[in-house]
Write a structure and sequence with these properties.
Length: 205
Amino acid sequence: MSRVHVLRHGHVHNPDGVLYGRLPEFRLSDAGQQMAQAVADHLVGSGAKVGRVVASPLLRAQQTAAPVAAAYGLDIATDERIIEADNAFAGGPTPTPLTLAHPRNWWLLRNPFRPSWGEPYKEQAARMHAAIVDAAAANPGSETVMVSHQLPIWVARCAAEGRSFVHDPRSRECALASLTSFDVDGDRVSFVGYSAPAAHIEAPR
């Protein structure tokens, strides 16, 4: 059995409030850099035996992975399967109830159970499951840290716990620079814990 910690990236520099989704240029803020270092310090301090670091191709994920990789003297592997979920609203302002109520958005909101405005939950769960299983298989003798994004991480946890994917986004237990940990036995992925080692670092609004 291998353990895989899936780390959400740190706070992003985004003064204009863009829903950045898969846009490639968004980097960590100064607070995000501090969060990434706090996670690395936490892992080392807790005695975690990390033997592999994997990240989404997006800049904010690569930057979050860097202090962990440096702390353990490792390179960062990149896995496209743990990228942010696709979202039709990406590139514009973060949606509000008022903007979502506009008639031009009704078609995108026709099926919140799928969801119709972005990548289906089932597809996210499948790619995250495959990536976690493959990461464990590639590093059976120690722990793996994978840097991903809030929604794919939450969907992976729901899948591991047998929960419904349909949820209120405000209910996700997946803070910035938090660790969602799984044990992997063959093709079986089990949720084993959640921690937020960077919770003491205030994220700018």
